[in-house]
Amino acid sequence: MGKKYLLSLKQNIAKKNFGTKTVLTKGKEVRNNTAFINFKKNQNSQLNVLINTLQLKKKIYGLVKYADGSLSYITLTSGFFLGDYNYTTNLPPYLWYFHKPGVTVLLFFLKKFSIFNGLTVKTTSKYAKANGTFCQVLEIFEDLNLAKVMLPSGQSKVVTTLKFVTLGRCANLLSNREVYGKAGSLRNRGIKPKVRGVAMNPVDHPHGGRSNTSKPEVSPWGWVTKKTK
């Protein structure tokens, strides 16, 4: 596919950029192709067609083309294939064009035990974004506009039903069973090797030069990494 839909960014901050996928670790002059993902699918209610796919690291994204000619990347759903049509709607189920994975609808219209992905909290998608993950509706409180959903971790959470979600589960279900074979295949995906802190010297890391102590685990800059959960 052409390079005009991609943007090369330099990773020079600890956290990920808003709406992009960058390298997993910091590094000097580390560059990687990134794509801007359209998490807020409620901005465009037109029909869209999947015309191409893109894999960055372990995640698969789909390039969709809307009826007005615009293009955007979305998180790919299992069962949404090349050439298939989908859309975003806020109408009840009996007015949907088709009922299949990849359709973005309001959580209010889903039935009990329905599965979905891409649950948005505030502005961006926060739950069920990883490969093969999904959320499930446990109970809907119509009078309160609330729903009790099960997260991929197995915990339950009460969220508002006025959120757009995507039917089905995320694509690439067998990603955790993939055998890479060598370290170079991971480097091509933008994942850098990391050395454990306990294998370093005391001048290089707070964990270096020790075996067992009562001190908490910290980052290379001395921040506590494992807080109370």
Structural commentary:
This protein is an all-beta fold and 229 residues long. The chain has two domains: 3-167, SH3 type barrels; 195-229, no CATH class. It contains one helix and 14 strands; from the N terminus they run E-E-E-E-E-E-E-E-E-E-E-E-E-E-H. The chain has one helix at residues 183-187; strands at 7-10, 31-34, 48-56, 59-66, 71-75, 85-86, 104-106, 115-117, 119-121, 124-127, 135-141, 146-150, 156-160, 164-167. It has a six-stranded antiparallel beta sheet, with no helix packed on it. Strands 5-4-3-6 form a four-stranded antiparallel beta sheet, with no helix packed on it. A two-stranded antiparallel sheet has the order 1-2. The longest helix has 5 residues, at 183-187. The N and C termini lie far apart (44 Å). Residues 1-17 and 26-30 have low confidence and may be disordered.
Termini Cα gap: 44 Å
Contiguous uncertain segments of 5+ residues: 1-17, 26-30
Round the mean pLDDT to the nearest integer and report it: 78
Assign the CATH architecture of the largest domain. Answer: Roll
Q: Helical stretch count?
A: 1
Strand content: 25-35%
Task: Give descriptors for this structure.
229 residues; SH3 type barrels; globular; 14 strands; four-stranded antiparallel β-sheet; 29% strand; disordered N terminus
List the helices and strands and how they pair.
Layout lengths: L6 E4 L20 E4 L13 E9 L2 E8 L4 E5 L9 E2 L17 E3 L8 E3 L1 E3 L2 E4 L7 E7 L4 E5 L5 E5 L3 E4 L15 H5 L42
Quick synopsis:
The protein is mainly β and 229 residues long.
